From TrEMBL:
Native source organism of the sequence: Asanoa hainanensis
UniProt xrefs under Pfam families: Arg_tRNA_synt_N, DALR_1, tRNA-synt_1d
Entry GO terms, CC: cytoplasm
Assembly and binders: Monomer.
Protein name as it appears in the record: Arginine--tRNA ligase
Short sequence motif named 'HIGH' region, residue ranges: 122-132
Any one of the GO BP annotations: arginyl-tRNA aminoacylation
Keyword Aminoacyl-tRNA synthetase: yes
Enzyme class: ligase
Gene3D superfamilies found in the cross-reference section: Arginyl tRNA synthetase N-terminal domain, HUPs, Isoleucyl-tRNA Synthetase, Domain 1
C-alpha cells in the first residue's frame, strides 16, 4: 500500500479529534492554505449539523489534535476552520516515502473497474477535423490515467463507417471505376463528386439509395467496395494516430457497421416494451425533457446514428460488462447523449450500477473566433496541422540548441510540436471553446507543454551534473519554506489524478503540473542544489528527483513525451 497523502492522514486525525469533541463520523476536507500548511473546513459544516458554536467546536478539535512528531501546531482560524502545520520531520518522511515508491504515492483505486471509452470516432472517406483531434487527445489522456490508476479500459473507436452516404459513394465508384484502390485523398474527391451528383441527378440518387439497401443486405460486390474504403481510411487514421502518439490501434476500431445486425432486435425490443412508439412512421423514444425524440428507425425503415449507439451501449454493458461508459464527443451532441442514456435506462440496458457520461468538449476556433477552418472554408487536414506544429517546434528547438541537427533535431521537434498541440488542447477547460494559436502554444514561458518539457529537462540536467544515484533522504535537516512548498505540491499528485478521474477533466492535471514546475523554479532560485553540501544537498537532490519523476509521469498521462534533453 502506498503511504497515504498528507491530506488523508490529516483528515483521519481531524475526524478522530471531532469524534473526541462529540461529533463522530465525518470525513473533514483538508485543503492547502495560505496561513498554514493545511486547513480543515469540516468543523464548520459539522457544527451547524449538531448545533454547536463553530469557533468553540474548532477550539475543542484543535486541542484534541495531538501535536508532536508529526503535527507541529493546530489552531482555530476564521469562523471555525482549523489550521494545521506539520513538522519538518513529517515532511521529510513523506518525501522519503514518495521517493521510495516508483508509483509516486498513486494507488490503484480503479482496480476492478471496467471503463469503455468511446473516442476519436472519425468518419470513413472523410478528413479528420479538429473536433476529432480533441476527442482523440482527451480520450487518450483519460485512458492513460484510468489505466495508471489500475482500471481496466476498453477503447472503442466508434468509426463512422455506416450510413446512407456509403450508397452514394459505392455507386459513384461502380459507375466510375478507379484504376487502383482509391487513396484517402482520392476518397475525399470521390465523396465530393458523389455528393454533387446525388443532389443534382435524381436518377443517380435513386441508384445510390438502392445501393444502400444492397450494402445493408450484404451484397458481395457492394460490401467489397465499401470494405476498400474503410480499409484505406483506417490506414490513414492509423497514420494520424502514430504521428500523435496515441494509444489507438486498428483493434480498437469497432465502427458503426459492427452493430448493423443488432439493429432490428433493438427496435423490436423497444417497441415490444413500449419504450419506443411509432410517430409519423418513425419509431421514436420520447422523453419528458425535450420534444425532440430519439429516432430509432426512420420512416423509410432505415436505422441511423441513434440506433447504432443504442446497440453499442447495450453490448458494452451486457457483453463487455462495463461499469462506466465514457463518450468523448463534441458538446454539440449533448442532446443526443441525454436521449440515448434516457432511452437505454428505460429499456433496462443501462442499470443504475453503470455510469454513463458524455464527456463533452468545446469547439476549436480560428483566430477570427469562428470554428477552425482553412481560408476557403474547408476542413483543416489534421496531418497538415501536426506537420506545421512540428515545423514550428523545430525552429524553437534549433534556436535553443544550435548544435542539434539531423535526426536528433527532428525527434525533439516532434516531441515538442506534438506535445504543444496536446497540451494546448488539454489545458483548456474541457467544455470551453479555445482558439487554435500555434505561436502561443509553442511559447517557452507560460502555460505550455514546452515550458513543462523544459522544466523537466532542466531537472534532468541538474541531476546529471550532480552525478549521483537516487539519494536517501537525510532526516533531521531543517526544511526551507521553498522546500516545504515543493514537498506539499509533490504530495498532491495522487489526489490530482483522482480528481481527473472524478471529473474527466485532464486540465486539472495540466494545472497541477504547471504549478509544480513553478514551485520548483522558486525552490531552485532560493535553494542552491549543486552548491549545497552534506545532508542539505542530499535532500535537495531528492526533491529534484521526485519533481522530475512527477513531471515525467504526469506528462506521460497526458500523452506528452518528456525527453531528458531538449
Ligand atoms: N463519428 C461521429 C462524428 O464525427 C462521432 C461519434 C461519436 N460517438 C458515438 N458513440 N456516437 O461526429
Amino acid at each position: 500500500m502506498a503511504v497515504p497523502p498528507l491530506t488523508a492522514s490529516l483528515s483521519d486525525a481531524v475526524a478522530a479529534a471531532l469524534a473526541t469533541a462529540g461529533v463522530p463520523e465525518v470525513a473533514p476536507r483538508i485543503r492547502r492554505s495560505q496561513h498554514a500548511d493545511f486547513q480543515a473546513d469540516g468543523v464548520l459544516a459539522s457544527a451547524g449539523a449538531v448545533r454547536r458554536d463553530p469557533r468553540a467546536l474548532a477550539a475543542e478539535v484543535a486541542a484534541a489534535l495531538p501535536t508532536g512528531d508529526r503535527l507541529a501546531a493546530a489552531s482555530v482560524a476564521g469562523p471555525g476552520f482549523v489550521n494545521l502545520d506539520l513538522t519538518d520531520g513529517a515532511l521529510l518522511d513523506q518525501l522519503a516515502a514518495r521517493l521510495a515508491d516508483p508509483r509516486l504515492g498513486v494507488g490503484t483505486p480503479e482496480s476492478g473497474v471496467t471503463t469503455v471509452v468511446d473516442y476519436s470516432q472519425p468518419n470513413v472517406a472523410k478528413e479528420m477535423h479538429v473536433g476529432h483531434l480533441r476527442s482523440t487527445i482527451i480520450g487518450d489522456a483519460l485512458v492513460r490515467t484510468l489505466e495508471h490508476l489500475g482500471g481496466d479500459v476498453i477503447r472503442r473507436n466508434h468509426l463512422g463507417d455506416w450510413g446512407t452516404q456509403f450508397g452514394m459513394l459505392v455507386q459513384q465508384l461502380v459507375e466510375h471505376p478507379e484504376p487502383a484502390a482509391p487513396s484517402m485523398s482520392r476518397l475525399l474527391e470521390l465523396y465530393r463528386a458523389a455528393r454533387v451528383r446525388f443532389e443534382s441527378d435524381p436518377a443517380f440518387a435513386d441508384r445510390a439509395r438502392r445501393r444502400v439497401v444492397a450494402l445493408q443486405s450484404g451484397d458481395r460486390a457492394t460490401v467489397a467496395a465499401w470494405r476498400e474504403m474503410v480499409d484505406e481510411s483506417e490506414r490513414y487514421f492509423t497514420e494520424v494516430y502514430d504521428r500523435l502518439g496515441v494509444r489507438l490501434t486498428p483493434a480498437d476500431a469497432v465502427g458503426e457497421s459492427a452493430y448493423n445486425d443488432a439493429l432490428p432486435g433493438i427496435a423490436d425490443e423497444l417497441e415490444r416494451t413500449g419504450v419506443a412508439v411509432t410517430s409519423d412512421g418513425a419509431l421514436c423514444v420520447f422523453t419528458d425533457f425535450t420534444s425532440t425524440p430519439l429516432i430509432v428507425r426512420k420512416s423509410d425503415g432505415g436505422y441511423g446514428y441513434a440506433a447504432t449507439d443504442l446497440a453499442a451501449l447495450r453490448q458494452r454493458v451486457g457483453e463487455l460488462h462495463a461499469d462506466r461508459l465514457l463518450y468523448v464527443v463534441d458538446a454539440r451532441q449533448s442532446l443526443h447523449f441525454r436521449l440515448l442514456f434516457a432511452a437505454a435506462t428505460r429499456a433496462g440496458w443501462l442499470p443504475a450500477t453503470v455510469s454513463a457520461t458524455h464527456v463533452a468538449f468545446g469547439t476549436v476556433l480560428g483566430n477570427d473566433g469562428r470554428p477552425f477552418q482553412t481560408r476557403s472554408g474547408d476542413t483543416v487536414r489534421l496531418i497538415d496541422l501536426l506537420t506545421d506544429a512540428v515545423d514550428r517546434a523545430r525552429t524553437v528547438v534549433a534556436a535553443k540548441n544550435p548544435d542539434l541537427t539531423g535526426a536528433a533535431l527532428d525527434e525533439r521537434a516532434r516531441a515538442v510540436g506534438i506535445g504543444a498541440v496536446k497540451y494546448a488542447d488539454l489545458a483548456t477547460g474541457r467544455t470551453r471553446d479555445y482558439v487554435y494559436d500555434p505561436d502561443r502554444m509553442l511559447a517557452l514561458t507560460g502555460d505550455t507543454g514546452v515550458y513543462l518539457q523544459y522544466a523537466h529537462a532542466r531537472i534532468r540536467s541538474i541531476l546529471a551534473r550532480a552525478g549521483s544515484a537516487r539519494p536517501q533522504v537525510a532526516p533531521g535537516v531543517p526544511v526551507h519554506p521553498a522546500e516545504r512548498a515543493l514537498i506539499l505540491d509533490l504530495d498532491a499528485f495522487a489526489e490530482t489524478l483522482a480528481d481527473v478521474v472524478a471529473t474527466y477533466e485532464p486540465h486539472r492535471l495540466c494545472a497541477y503540473l504547471h504549478r509544480l514546475a513553478q514551485t520548483f523554479t522558486t525552490f531552485y532560485d532560493q535553494c542552491p542544489v549543486l552548491r549545497a553540501e552534506g545532508p542539505t544537498r542530499t535532500n535537495r537532490l531528492a526533491l529534484c528527483h521526485l519533481t522530475g519523476d512527477t513531471l515525467h509521469t504526469g506528462l506521460s498521462l497526458l500523452g506528452i513525451e518528456a525527453p531528458d534533453q531538449l
